[in-house]
Amino acid sequence: MVPVIRDGYKFRQDLCIPCYQTDSKMALKPAAFMDMAQEIAYWAAEELGFGYDSLHVHHTAWVLTRLHIHFHEAAHWREWVRLFTWHKRSEGLFYLRDFELQSQDGKPLIEATSSWVVIDEQTRRLVRPEVLQERIRTEPETADAIAEPAPKVVFPPQEAGEPAGVHIVSYSDLDMIGHTNNARYVVWAMDCLPPEVTESPVKDLCINFNKETKAGESVALFRLQSYGVWYVEGRVDGKSCFTVKMVF
After folding, report:
1. 221: which residues sit within 8 A by CB, 6+ positions away?
2. pTM for this entry
3. Which terminus of the chain, N or C, has fewer Cβ atoms within 10 Å?
4. Mean pLDDT lowest for which of 42-46, 57-61, 75-79, 194-198?
5. Rounded to whole angstroms, what are the CA distances from 217 to 113, 170, 209, 234?
6. Is the pLDDT higher at 134 or at 112?
């Protein structure tokens, strides 16, 4: 049984927020929402015929490249919520997918938009959409959780940032295809900010995944506050692997 319910052009999961996905205020953590989003995205894509199994046969895989999340209101421990997702359209090299998290009475809690690409699992190179036309076929949807696609995030000039530690990619960071799971980058970013900052809820978060990282790699973290916005970037050998922008 596939654990999603088709709801018009959207797919839905009804979920109860568990304690291990919440912070000290019992509110759902941003990275926990990302975990939930990638799971429902997998099942929805499977139902439409272009999920993990369908692409893996051709040695290809989905990779998340950009994500924009807007937080309206916190979901809390033991609260029942409804998570929706839908495939919107392709735009250049990107495939766009949106998400909505609602309370049981339909109040919006979180809205998000994401951009994905398909890579060749063996060469790690992008597979162009025209090659995938027969594998990824669906009617585009016009509804938006967030109208604009997730933006490019640029860390301000490097000399303006300050070192915020080094993270060694370890077992708990890895996903099923052997590189760092996308939500872990937000965990690293949140962990390197001052506690007085993360005591406040995140209102808006944009992240770009620039280069995959693997077990044993050292990721140097840098942070910067600019006009009320926090930026965190991870670099391997001086090259950006992720950049995140957060408003609290």
Report:
1. 163, 164, 165, 166, 167, 188, 189, 192, 232, 233, 234, 235
2. 0.94
3. N
4. 57-61
5. 29, 8, 16, 11
6. 112
78-113 burial: b if 16+ Cβ within 10 Å, else e: ebebbbbbbbbebeeebbbbbbbbbeeeeeebbbbb
- With H, G, I as helix, E, B as strand and everything else as coil, classify residue 157: coil
Q: What is the 3-state secondary structure (H, E, C) of 100-156?
A: EEEECCCCEEEEEEEEEEEEECCCCCECCHHHHCCCCCCCCCCCCCCCCCCCCCCCC
DSSP reduced 3-state for 193: coil
Burial of 133 per CB tally in 10 Å (0-12, 13-18, 19+): exposed
For residue 245, what are the contacts with CB-CB under 8 A and spacing of at least 6? 153, 205, 206, 207, 229, 230, 231
pLDDT of residue 14: 96
Region label for 225, one of left (φ > 0), alpha (ψ between -120 and 50) or beta (otherwise):
beta
Nearest Cα to Cα of residue 207 among 15, 30, 18:
30
- pLDDT bucket at 82, cuts 50 / 70 / 90: very high
The sign of the dihedral angle between the CA atoms of 235, 247, 25, 197 is positive
Q: How far apart are CA 120 and CA 143, in angstroms?
A: 30
The pLDDT, as a whole number, for residue 135 is 80
CA dist., res. 63 & res. 66, Å (int): 10
Token reading at 52: 């993990």
Q: Which of these, 127, 47, 70, lies nearest to 95 by C-alpha position?
A: 127
